[in-house]
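Researcher: Structure prediction, please.
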Amino acid sequence: MLLTLAVIGPAHALKGEVRLEIRTDDPKRRLAPGTTVPTEPAHAGPLTVSRLRFDGSRWFAAFEQARDRTAAEALRGVRLLVDTDDDAPGSERAEDSEEAWYRHELIGLRALSASGEELGEVTDLEPGVAQDRLVVTTPEGDEVAVPFVEALVPDINPETGTVTLAPPGGLFPGRGQAEEAR
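Model: Predicted structure follows.
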């Protein structure tokens, strides 16, 4: 299965460098110079990384196929992919890692409270800086972003098709009281 490593953002400077929106926990290895990665849409690649750098807050890359700003800007929005059929140690998710989840494994799970109350359905996993967020669509159609941390998402059970949530009061509309301001 092909999963997204990064999404190419705007061109940066004049020599074909682009900003990347990273979707992997190991960009240095997955996007090391010399690595050739498939793309979506397919007609944009495959692309071979010629340079990868981190400026302390953002990732940037250059590709052999885009050596100037015009060519780099044409890549904006292209997804860099990885084949996950090789779930070897060090890959995006190793088999023995119970705390790592692919987006496609979570979407469609029923979200339940600890007491078994139906909260909605997981419809997305948004990447975040501090932590990712599960997007739950309630039966009323509201979207709620739940920080994907163990305290708020204590159990994920793909066999039963459920994820148990322990949201603070007020996170879900009409459920619980919001905490008082201190």
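Model: The CA atoms of residues 24 and 138 lie 28 Å apart.
Researcher: Thanks, that helps.
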